[in-house]
Amino acid sequence: MAPLAKLSHTAAMILQAIDAGLIYGFSIMETTGLPSGTVYPAMRRLERDKLICSRWERQSIADAEQRPPRKYYKLTTAGAEALRASRSRYPLLERMIPLAEEKSL
Amino acid sequence: MTLHSEPVFRAIDRGLLYCASYLVPERQRTEWRLEWESELWHARQSNRACSTISWQSEREIARFCMGAFQDAACLRRFWWQSRPRSAPLHGSAMLCILWLGCLLLASYAVSRMLPRVHMEQDFSSNQALPGTILIENEAARGSSAPSMAIDQVRIWQRSSQRYADGFAFYRVAREAVEIGPDPDTWRVAEASSNLFAVAGWPLRYAAPQADTNDDLPRLVLSLRTWRQQFAADPYVVGTVVRIGSRSARIVGIAPGDAWRLPGKADAWLLEPDSAMGRNGLGYVIAHLTRSGRAAMWNGSFVSRRTIRENWNTIF
Predict the structure, then answer these.
(1) What is the per-residue pLDDT across B268-298, written as a single tens digit (0 to 9) for each?
(2) Please, are residues B43 and A26 in contact by the beta-carbon 8 Å criterion?
(3) I need a labelling partner for B311 at 20 to 30 A (CA). Which of A11, B42, B184, B200 fits?
(4) Do the beta carbons of residue B163 and residue B283 sit within 8 Å?
(5) What structural domains does chain A harbor?
(6) Do B46 and A68 touch (CB under 8 A)?
(7) Domain extent at residue B33
(8) Do B306 and B275 fall within a single domain?
(9) In the Cβ-directed half-sphere of B182, how many Cα atoms lie within 13 Å?
(10) ipTM of the prediction
């Protein structure tokens, strides 16, 4: 894994977005306002560094909703740890992308 | 924008993704296409949800698709960084051989830059000039005995020639040589001063013209004589030795393996043809002109190396 201190603000935003429940690429794009050319490569790097992992949605679920299956991302243990470290480094992170439970409050 | 144009935009977007997918390593390409097509579907749905179909939304979607190129390039970069690097070569015999090969090549390149080495290599690869032939009398056909008289060469040199642009005569005789306390006997070829020019053999350690501008005959040593009698000393060039009853100045060393002509000699005493005595037969070599070579190839001459018959009519 890449050293935590070197996690960029973009990477931290994506981790925060995934942690907030935005678990596929386009939703992360919409929330963060980052272009696709930034979000997807950053997600590839995070996945390579094992901070996030991905899985394909079951075809039956996608068929039921009449749409193509999505590729979902979630934080790994290392990713969660990296995100905690990043929050102290980027204090505004949680305000920019609040977690789902915070939104509901 | 009309509804009819929507399939066109869809086709353009899919085309963009399809093109970008070729940047993705083949192993990941199918999954990558599936993910991006799925994302494109969601992007289109999202844009449709927030506005009617418009240039603006299509531009947004196209911009989204353009991001696929950066994503694909990123995957390509990962693949490039993680590709197997010639690992079996590390610390192996193959690596050792490669290094030795490189070292040899580098040494060869450096050696080619050294003037003496360069000269040595050129020297060992000397061949007679193309079109150099040996002329002998028909009577001497099949033997290596000398058969030509110097007078014949003088006649050819005086007349206009179509087939040859140079003639050189030489004859070999044993001569007493004084180079040390004990007298020695060499096979000395008394030769036309242009012998080496006609044959096209450059001399080794040739003395500068200014150093040899005297009346002394010029002497060219064979490589074997130079090595055996002078211990391959390059400074012997320019010195004067006694050959028979006359003195001669050593002007160079003959190419080692170039001499393929009859009459083996330890040294060549180069003199103008006019200074050579009429007595004694020798050998004649000539350098053919282009038309001379053409005539030879067309079969006008019997042999490529030797004119054995009718030499009087050829020249």
Answers:
(1) 888 887 777 777 888 888 888 877 777 777 7
(2) yes
(3) B200
(4) no
(5) 4-97 (1.10.10.10)
(6) no
(7) 3-82
(8) yes
(9) 4
(10) 0.86
